[in-house]
Each structure stands twice: as structure tokens, then as C-alpha cells.
């Protein structure tokens, strides 16, 4: 498969795959990174935050895990197909 692509095409597709995997990993780890950077436990924040707000934030971070996983998988599949 590498023989079918020109050098600049190979380099371009490698960059695309690496960027997709890195972006997907960052998206997948968004909740953990947010908790680490802010020092807040999203699962039980305490304080005066309304429980409905906490539930919505947890749902949003749950969806980002699926999106991040999908981006990683799409990047890997594109790399396997193209490279």
C-alpha cells in the first residue's frame, strides 16, 4: 500500500492519523484532565452547585468519551485504509 502513495501523500496521511489519534485521546480524557487541572471532582463536587447542573455536566463528559473514542477509531481506520 505504501508503494501506491507518493512521499508527500504518505507524510500527509501520517500527519492526519497522528492528529486524529491525539485529538481523540484528548477528547476522551477531557473529564479526567478537567478534574486534574481544576482540582474539582465532577462526580461529587460538593458546595452549592445544583444537582441538575452536575448531572448535565456528567452527561456532557460521558458523550465526549464516545466522541473521542470515535475520533480515535476513525483516525486509525483511515490510516489502515490509506496507508
Q: How does this structure look, described?
A:
By secondary structure, this protein is mainly α. It has one domain (2-37, 49-82). 76% of the residues lie in helices and 0% in strands. The chain has 3 helices and no strands. The protein has helices spanning 7-28, 30-38, 51-82. Helix 1 (7-28) runs antiparallel to helix 3 (51-82). The chain is elongated and about 60 Å long. The mean pLDDT is 87.
Keywords:
83 residues; mainly alpha; 0% strand
**Percent of residues in helical segments?**
over 70%
> Low-confidence stretches at least 5 residues in length (pLDDT < 50)?
none
Please give the largest β-sheet. Answer: none
C-alpha-based Rg, rounded: 18 Å
State the secondary-structure class.
mainly alpha
Give the end-to-end Cα distance, rounded to a whole number of Å: 6 Å
SSE topology string: HHH
Q: How much of the polypeptide forms β-strand, as a percent range?
A: under 5%
Kindly give the count of domains.
Answer: 1
Shape: elongated
Global mean pLDDT:
87
- The beta-strand count equals 0
Helical element count? Answer: 3
